[in-house]
Design a protein that fits this description.
Length: about 60
């Protein structure tokens, strides 16, 4: 049985500079509300590309006797 902290699933998402900030915000809120994702990091490149890292807990079912 694992006794450490929670296990996380990570996802990297890239948004092109053509997407306005409010559209990116809506897309990330949608993922958070319906997929259980939370924001870890946003990096905006000099060319305007947004690189986003999301995470969510991995919930494992524990078999009972």
């Amino acid at each position: 049985m694992r006794t450490g902290g929670p296990e996380w699933q990570f996802e990297k998402v890239t948004f092109s500079r053509e997407y306005p900030r409010n559209v990116v915000t809506k897309l990330l809120v949608e993922r958070a509300e319906h997929g259980g994702w939370e924001l870890v990091r946003v990096r905006i490149s000099p060319d305007g590309t947004r690189r986003v890292i999301l995470r969510r807990k991995i919930i494992r079912a524990v078999r009972t006797a």
